[in-house]
Amino acid sequence: MKKKICLIYTGGTIGMVHSDKGYIPSGEGFLKLLKGMPEFSHPDFPDFEMIVFSPLLDSSDMDVEDWNKLGRTIASRYAACDGFVVLHGTDTMAYSASALSFMLENLDKPVIFTGSQIPLYELRSDGRDNLIAAMLLAASDKIREVCIYFGGVLLRGNRATKLSADGMRAFDSPNFPPLVQAGIDFKFRRVPDLPKKEGAFRLQTFEYTPLGVIKVFPGIRFELFEGIMTESLKGVVLESFGAGNIPGATTALLPILKKAHDHGTIVVVRSQCPEGKVNLGTYAASSALKDIGAVDGGDMTTEAALAKLYYLLSKGLSSAEIKWLMEMNLRGERS
Ligand code: ASP
Prior knowledge:
- The chain is of the alpha/beta class.
- It starts with a strand and ends in a 9-residue tail after the last helix.
- The protein has an 8-stranded mixed β-sheet.
- The longest helix has 14 residues, at 64-77.
- 26% of the residues lie in helices and 23% in strands.
- The protein folds into 2 domains: 4-203, Rossmann fold (3-Layer(aba) Sandwich), CATH 3.40.50; 211-326, Rossmann fold.
- It has helices at 28-35, 64-77, 93-103, 127-138, 223-226, 253-262, 284-291, 302-314, 319-326; strands at residues 4-11, 16-19, 22-25, 47-57, 83-87, 104-105, 111-114, 146-150, 153-156, 161-162, 171-172, 180-182, 186-188, 202-203, 211-215, 235-240, 266-271, 295-296.
- Bound molecules: aspartic acid (ASP).
- Aspartic acid (ASP) is lined by residues 11-13, 58-60, 89-91, 115, 117.
């Protein structure tokens, strides 16, 4: 029997058209183009239904409430459909895929994000292949998680990051192999299993929670951050050097982080290097972070670390539980 896929169009370059201010999302023109694609009536193409978001967004405008809307849409069609394809802008696709990977608890069906670097109506668009491959992968029995299909590879959503602003292979997951390599056939790779699911599918929407990302750099003046590291900041992702090192580990930053930690802010340390992992305590420049109770972010991406903070904070857990779970592998987001 043919699989039924729910195709959700949220916006992004794939459906954009030129305007005098640059590319903007378009509804009708894009839908007309889709309807005219012969692939959609090919006998091997899955059945599908389409949901079009309003307003259509450039993904740089995606917000927590848009993730919730996407989560609710998938939850409402979960029983009726075998898989989901989300057409989304590339700029924040890795954030949204990470968010949905946590939000959709005990997910047992494929949710494939895709989009394009060149709009579908343009001659050299990469949208056609991305969309068709994503639809076929969403109809596959082998994928049961949130992924990104882009430029010939299927990546785990919460491991992916946008690495190229203009290349057709815009995404990569430097700490995790692609799940599928698309050649003449789809080559499914054996990857470590996802953590065991515990119960039925459930949606955990996110709350608006004040979070921050600080990227350290030589010459950084930590005093400037003191004003934002208050009780209202619930979590901060610290993008450190290498394996978790920060400048002046024994001076300026630490008292500020310690104060933040003591009034409940979760401090997650991840590396600025796309590849490899944090290992607090390897160098003196990082062991002080361990001492003040910072969370070792391991090999999580910043996108996944932020999404996970939103998720755990939205569940109303204690700081101790959140810190513990941040260091666990919940959805395959860390090794
Ligand atoms: N600015 C666009 C977006 O993220 C870029 C893209 O889709 O490639 O919506």
